[in-house]
Amino acid sequence: MPLPSPEQLIARLADQIAPTLGPDLALIGIHTGGVWVMDALIERLGRNLPRGVLDISFYRDDFSRIGLHPQVKPSDIPFDMEGRRVLLIDDVLHTGRTIRAAMNVLFDYGRPAAIRLAVLVDRGGREMPICPDFVGAHLDLAEHENIALNRAGDGTLGFTLERRP
Fold it and tell me: pTM to 2 decimals?
């Protein structure tokens, strides 16, 4: 079965998220793919929601294995986090380590009332007890397979499926 397009998955996410919108909700995308998904969701939802951007590079617990990402970007949360409902957004959920790191960053900004998670693709393979609230698609990928969201120069989103030997 072929994977639906990112646009189809964003539409699915928007349909799931729309009923949960409220005045105290803020969206936070994780660099880089999560920010792309967040921007597309905001456009699809047609709402001007508070939004922020997280870079979790310095909060990862697997530096020794994967190294520091060469292009660290600043986090930007331009609103008070205290008591706010947060929708954390990422492109692909795998081990759960990125989400754990993102929650650590969020708590450096304050104590949100609630954090919910939206991901474009849940590919399985969890190493942490992390479960998304909103999912575009569930994929069962083998350990040697990887799916990545990428963006073309014109802003079009697409998937790349890689298989390692």
Answer: 0.92
